Amino acid sequence: MYKGEVTSLAKRLQENIILRRLVLSEDYFWTSPLAFWEIPNSLKNELAEANLILVKRDANYRRLLCDRYWHSTTNIADIVCYLPAPMVALVVKNRV
């Protein structure tokens, strides 16, 4: 990315944060070793208000799937049915 593109992206992100279209949530759970199905009720209630949950990185992807082997035909929606809102998982590196 070039400086102008980064500046434009930063401005759009900041505007969306101000308008509450993008909400950044700080909670111990995000850095804990707990599986996503162990999400605290307080955080689950907060996420229930979201239109979309964005999960990133390999470790969180593994936490979503409880670090288990799933058959390739298994629908991920069936695995993460405990989440209170639609979810997108961004994985850059995954050896599972």
UniProtKB/TrEMBL annotation:
Task: Give the source's domain of life in one word.
Answer: Bacteria
Q: Which UniProt keywords apply?
A: Hydrolase, Manganese, Metal-binding
| InterPro entries recorded | ARMT-1-like_metal-bd_sf, ARMT1, ARMT1-like_metal-bd
One GO biological process from the UniProt record? DNA damage response
Domain (Damage-control phosphatase ARMT1-like metal-binding): give its ranges. 9-83
Q: Which residues form a coiled coil?
A: none
Q: Which reaction does it catalyse?
A: beta-D-fructose 1-phosphate + H2O = D-fructose + phosphate; beta-D-fructose 6-phosphate = dihydroxyacetone + D-glyceraldehyde 3-phosphate
Query: Which cofactors, by name?
Result: Mn(2+)
Q: Name one Pfam family in it.
A: ARMT1-like_dom
- Drop me one GO molecular function for this one: metal ion binding
The text of the family note is:
Belongs to the damage-control phosphatase family. Sugar phosphate phosphatase III subfamily.
Protein name, as recorded:
DUF89 family protein
The protein's organism comes out as Dendronalium phyllosphericum CENA369
